[in-house]
Amino acid sequence: MPKPNAFYAQSGGVTAVINASACGVLETARAHKDDIGKVYAGRNGIIGALQEELIDTSKESKKDIAGLRSTPGGAFGSCRFKLKSPEDDAREYNRLIDVFSAHNIRYFFYNGGGDSQDTANKMAQVSRQRKYPLQCIGIPKTVDNDLPFTDCCPGFGSVAKYVATSTREAALDVASMCESSTKVFVLEVMGRHAGWIAAASALAQTREGDAPHIILLPEVPFEKQAFLRKVKETVTAKGYCVIVVSEGARYANGTFLGESGGGKDAFGHSQLGGVAPTIAAMVKDKFGYKFHWAVSDYLQRSARHIASATDVNQAYALGKAAVEFALAGKSAVMPIIVRTSDSPYKWKIGEAKLAKVANIEKFMPKSYISKDGFGITQRARKYLAPLIAGEDHPTYKDGLPVYVTLKNQLVAKKLPEKW
Questions:
Q1: SS3 of residue 251 by DSSP
Q2: DSSP for 337-395?
Q3: pTM of the model
Q4: Which of 16, 138, 309, 312 reaches 20 to 30 Å from 416, CA-CA?
């Protein structure tokens, strides 16, 4: 009998370390060549499976696979595509089972956030119902850090490090110019419903009164007058004010400050953007202060040059664990990070059932948010600080980081194009 093959795919917004998880999967599978034949990667996530566009990772060199550990983006292409329920659209699931059967795929690894874990869970259910031998393992990834059970999510630590560093550097710039120029700087960061990334900017503070002076979190309803008072107090005391705002900041009625035109993405989420200029305009209208604002956007999640070593190591370990879980006969589970010590920070690999992970978001607890709602507590700092620790710089050449580009050679299709 031929050895069973595996399918790996990346889903959702990519990160600085999602390829480190891919590296963990591929290197571990290659180390178990007696148990796993080939690892096929989906071209553009689960869409690659539906379209039978399977990348043969065996064509990639050992050196290039190792290089994935320090390469940002999604090496095989990602997607925002949400499978309907099996009851609503059995056609998609029939197609996936047909493709997996045609290519002798018995292991399914899906690397993504909450919606992706839902996809992996659905595939586990369907394969059981149809008696197709497929072991489904979810691999966590999300810069938002909002998956339950795991201590943290790969991608978050590096974004946190980038945002805290950028906040500290920008604050020094503003402080230098505030006497005769800019007095207010607003940095918009990712975080639709959970404020983990914005909260991490507080790691830039070393002394009381350091920037960021105001953090606006989705978990704290925005009150305009309280916000403006805080801005005025800060500028009066410091000469300038640095604000970090999550894209998901909202009013008490649930309306996003930065909701743009009511658009929705493939998962049905509101298209966000524009909260930084909205906040800046409020300040300008009230006080007339000169301001600047910036949106970190893709820069924050692609900044591999400043990745957290903790984040890189965890991302790789979770990819490795996914393969080991599958070979141990496990399915419908996700490897997670379990914190065993705060100081020194120690962690180990655990597991959670996909049925309990899928579509569940983890928010900032109240105990992590300061009483005035504009900052974080020591408890939050104790949680966040280890996640940005350590450096894992890529190799540099001619002053720029060297990143890997794979061949991404597709295997021959075996099924009809139309399905």
A1: strand
A2: EEEEEETTEEEEEEEEEHHHHTT---PPPGGGB-TTSSSB-HHHHHHHGGGG-SB-PPP
A3: 0.95
A4: 138
Instruction: Break the chain into its structural domains and give their ranges.
Output: 5-141+305-359+391-401, 156-303
Dist. CA 152–CA 142, nearest whole Å: 9
The tokens 């110019």 sit on which residue?
177
Residue 268, pLDDT score? 53
> Is the CATH code 3.40.50.450 the one for domain 5-141+305-359+391-401?
yes
Query: Is 144 part of the annotated catalytic residue set?
Result: yes
**Tokens (6 digits) for 26:** 């591929």
Q: What is the DSSP string of 280-342?
A: HHHHHHHH---EEEEE-HHHHHH-GGG-BHHHHHHHHHHHHHHHHHHHTT--SEEEEEEEEEE
Amino acid letter, residue 349: I
Amino acid 392: pLDDT: 97
Rounded to whole angstroms, how far apart are CA atoms 304 and 390? 13
The answer to whether residues 309 and 390 touch, using CB atoms and an 8 Å cutoff, is: yes
Single out the catalytic residue among 144, 146, 311, 392: 144
Tell whether omega for the bond before 212 is within 30 degrees of 0, i.e. cis: yes
Looking at domain 156-303, its CATH class is alpha beta
Record the tokens describing residue 125, joined without a space: 């259910």
* Model pLDDT, residue 274: 87
SS3 158: helix
**Angle of the 309-327 helix axis to the 18-31 helix axis, nearest 10:** 40
What b/e sequence results for 14-34 when a residue is b if at least 16 CB atoms lie within 10 Å of its CB, and e otherwise? bbbbbbbbbbbbbbbbbeeee
Q: What is the predicted pLDDT for the residue at 273? A: 59
Q: Which residue has the tokens 């190792």?
A: 66
Q: Give CA–CA dist 195/384, Å, rounded.
A: 12
pLDDT number for residue 260: 52
SS3 146: coil
Q: What is the mean pLDDT of each run of 10 residues along the chain (419 residues)?
A: 95 97 98 97 97 98 98 97 88 96 98 93 95 97 97 98 98 97 97 96 96 98 98 98 97 86 49 82 97 96 98 98 98 98 96 93 97 98 98 97 98 93
pLDDT in the model for residue 262: 47
pLDDT at 312: 98
In whole angstroms, what is the distance from residue 74 CA to residue 80 CA?
A: 13
| 5-141+305-359+391-401 and 156-303 have identical folds | yes
C-alpha span between 214 and 296 (Å, rounded): 17
